[in-house]
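Q: What would this chain look like folded?
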Amino acid sequence: AIDSLPQSGGTVQVPPGDYLIDPVGGVQLRSRMHLAMSPGTRLLAKPNAAERAYVLNAYRVTDTTISGGRIIGERSKHKGTTGEWGHGLMIRASERVNVRDMHISHCWGDGISIGGAKVGAAFVPSREVTIERVSCVDNRRQGLTIGRSRRVRVFDSEFIDTGGTLPGAGIDVEPDEGDIADDIVIARCTVRGNRGAGIQLYKRVSDATVRDCLIERNKGHGILTLGASECVIENNRIRENVLGGVGVRPGTRGLVVARNEFDDNGPAPTSGNGPRRGGKRHVVIGEKTERISVEPDNRYLD
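A: My prediction, written as structure tokens:
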């Protein structure tokens, strides 16, 4: 159906039902198309042993929309033990991609991965990608990875219960060496119960904003920054994160933390199985950081 669309593009409508997809080949999307799945559409990943496999693959496409339905990965039935790149949706070197109203779960790697690709001698990032009203639940590596990219927007989505291999973050903004992630907005999202950080801004990240989010009960920090520059964390509820609320690590420059509500962020017990200590580790600023501004309008409930 995708291959039969005219050059000008069009819509492929997927009716309700279970569709077994071999992610080693995957469904290859194309430019100027809308993959419109119904609420009852389920794309089921076939168990495989591949280190890299994608149920949906948007590679070097433009003006592409993916909406509706569910992607259900095969992490519990994966036939191999290596690799961490069994993603539900892979977006690489693409422009103007919109993903909305989807539920993606149980993937061997990430629910969604956004990044670049080497084309000839150059790295080509993804640009103008929007994620809206998407749930990524119980994926193994990340709920969402934002790699080599420019202008990514993540709105009204949830990233929950990620874990199984590092980093195990709800959202990891972490471009590979050779390029950057710039102009990122994460707003009105819920990030809960992930084994790593709730949100990680990690090296070569610039102009990232996290605002109006609920970030809670993650086993790492609620938000962790390392090597990120010119970022803003504002008007979030950050609570009950085991290692702390906001952790600011070396190389972070130009960070503003403002108008957030912090509650009961602190370390786990040092030993035994006792209850977790309530903590005061709401914002922890490490060495070799520059221009970190923790504004007086933050609120601390415990």
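The chain has no helices and 34 strands.
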